[in-house]
Design goal:
The protein is mainly beta and about 60 residues long. It is built from one helix and five strands. It comes from Micromonospora vulcania.
Length: about 60
């Protein structure tokens, strides 16, 4: 079941090749891109997050 169907408000997607992080917010039943980065992801929902992408890689 897709995340939007169960109402998961913030959704993050991590691509590994090449490394990139996408952040989505659920707005009116559809996901909207809130942020994307290959270097540093900064979002405010559901709380303030500042994440250096290289810190989550092996």
């Amino acid at each position: 079941m897709p995340a939007e169907e169960v109402g998961i408000p913030p959704h993050r997607r991590i691509e590994q090749n090449p490394l990139h992080v996408y952040a989505y917010d659920l707005v009116d039943g559809r996901y909207e891109l809130a942020a994307d980065s290959a270097e540093e992801l900064i979002v405010a929902k559901p709380f303030d997050i500042r994440l250096r992408v290289r810190d989550i890689t092996p």
